[in-house]
Amino acid sequence: MAKPEEADLVIWQGVRREGIHHTFDDKRPGLFPLRIMPIDNEHGSPPRHTHDFFEIVYIRIGSAIHLHGDSRYPIGAGDCMFIVPGDVEGFDERNNLCLTNVLFYEEIFGPYLDEFRAVRGFNEFFSTEPLFRKETAFRHKLHLGPAQQRRMMELLGSLEAELSSEKTGYRMVGRSIFVEIVVFLCRCFEETIKTGDVRKEFSGKERAINAAITFLEENYRKDIRLKDIVDKVHLSQSWLYDAFKSATGTSLFDYLTRFRLDAARKLLRESELSVKEISYQVGFHDPNYFSRAFARAFNEAPTAFRRKTGK
């Protein structure tokens, strides 16, 4: 897509639109990676678009058809959904639609992302449901009840007021409110999927991704083809490729390469094997390619890394 003229760029409360792709208007190092963007019916809502940030969408009033990829889903007041970077989305048949978007980059979680992943409902709402939305026809959509809707509005109002105030410490307070929103949604979604059938369905999909990871880690020394992984987890190539990248943030073979390189670092520290021998040991056929890949990943050559370890 050609880059639009400057006159075509539109700023929406700290979000820039270029064509149909949105990004924070300023991504300098140190920029606070969190925005809140209420959109009211009279101001319209964005056309079909993508963005490079994560987005929590909460429907405050009205209804519409949510366009997600090539699918269409009815949504209404009290519905809440999570959109991942790169997804194409928009709205059609809007009827007095008013919504609030909470936009963020992953670094908002700081060093505590693993702790969030341990919270019941977190993986299901922020990973599994978006990943399998089309397959499940959005039947596991999160809809908040009246009391939950009131609480959600209180939290969103507090977040908007704090971020707009820019008072001393507003980033710390804003982050804490964001965390409260995330945990609140995890609890709500946990209630939504507490029936045995839904949890079984979700856990089955997660098991497929985990089976692929286990296969890669157990066989990384060997030649591995995509077909080998597909045969192991009994899923289609296209489904597995897309699902794995969405769930882990990396492709199957980028994951495999990194795992091999991590294994190589361990051998460089702990063994007397040569760099060439280690490259073969961890699944690389070309020692020169191994050295280049190692340097790209760790910003130093294998020989330089080994010298630091005293080997």
Question: Describe it for me?
Answer:
This protein has 311 residues and is of the alpha+beta class. The chain folds into two domains: 6-194, Sandwich (Jelly Rolls), CATH 2.60.120.280; 196-311, Orthogonal Bundle (Arc Repressor Mutant, subunit A), CATH 1.10.10.60. It is 47% helix and 20% strand. The chain has eleven helices and ten strands. The chain has helices at 113-117, 122-131, 146-165, 170-192, 196-218, 226-233, 237-248, 252-270, 275-281, 287-298, 302-309, and strands at residues 10-12, 15-18, 21-24, 34-39, 50-51, 54-68, 71-76, 79-83, 89-104, 142-143. Strands 4, 6, 7, 8, 9 and 10 form a six-stranded antiparallel beta sheet that branches. The radius of gyration is 23 Å and the shape is globular.
Outline the fold blueprint.
Layout: E1 10-12, E2 15-18, E3 21-24, E4 34-39, E5 50-51, E6 54-68, E7 71-76, E8 79-83, E9 89-104, H1 113-117, H2 122-131, E10 142-143, H3 146-165, H4 170-192, H5 196-218, H6 226-233, H7 237-248, H8 252-270, H9 275-281, H10 287-298, H11 302-309
Parallel strand pairs: 3-5
Antiparallel strand pairs: 1-2, 2-3, 4-9, 6-7, 6-8, 6-9, 8-10
Helix pairs in contact: 3-4, 5-6, 5-8
